[in-house]
Structure prediction request, 287 residues.
Amino acid sequence: MEHDFKAIFNCFVSVGICFLLSVTYLASLHVWNSPYNRDHPSTITRRFISVFIMLFVAPCFLYLGLNKALLKEVSFFEVLGLKTKGLTPAFFMPLFLTMILFLGPISMELFSGLSKIYTEETYWLSNLTNLMWMRNHIVAPLSEEFTYRSCMLPLLLQCFPPLAAILINPLLFGVAHFHHMQERLKFGMNFSTALKISCFQFLYTTIFGAYSAYLFYRTGHFLSIFVVHAFCNHMGFPDIVEVTTYKQPKKIVVWCLFVVGFIAWCYLLKPMTEPSWYSNEPVWYAL
Prediction:
């Protein structure tokens, strides 16, 4: 009975620390009293400072709640997913797997000719000086994955079965995106519209969060989830409406690629994230 109570208490502490970390992360974004919206250069720059500081604060939360017996088996950096073994497959394989899932949207870029811009040097040079592009493709994936996966998932995995931890973790990530609702209301959007947008955002960020948590558990690498998050931010949510405007046979081809991509992704998800490929041993979570 005493052992059961201790296990329940430890789980309560782990979940509580994850919740406090999420609140701290969000508070760091809103600590600035800015009259501008989230896309204004001043707001983006200030939030860059906030998330940079959080890169050092978030691991403190993890260390506080982590079972110290674990650190006798692996280093703290390995717990965070910061390691060199298996780094090359950690970069390419989860990214390739995710591109398979996005086979439909990628085909749409090829058909429209949009993909040609990726071969232009000016495209990359201009984006590297674009604060919004840097936020969406570098800073947000870096800070969000490090906070919500690297620093939270180990806490959940030490007291929940892997599947439960993978499903609980994205709920914190999805709920965190409701802070955008406050900004939408502040700048004139009506409550009903803001709520609908936020609920939709909660849905797809939670689904993505579960996928990212699964990748982190299976690969053990922060690099994997950072690259995948950046790619998904770049692709955005698939524009289904645009597909309906296509003429035959292009419409049929694109729809087929959507279906084939999803089926192939489901089939390849487990084999392409085989832990041994990434020099990862998830059994240490059982300590």
User: Anything to note?
Assistant: The chain has a mean pLDDT of 88. Residues 2-30 form the longest helix (29 residues).
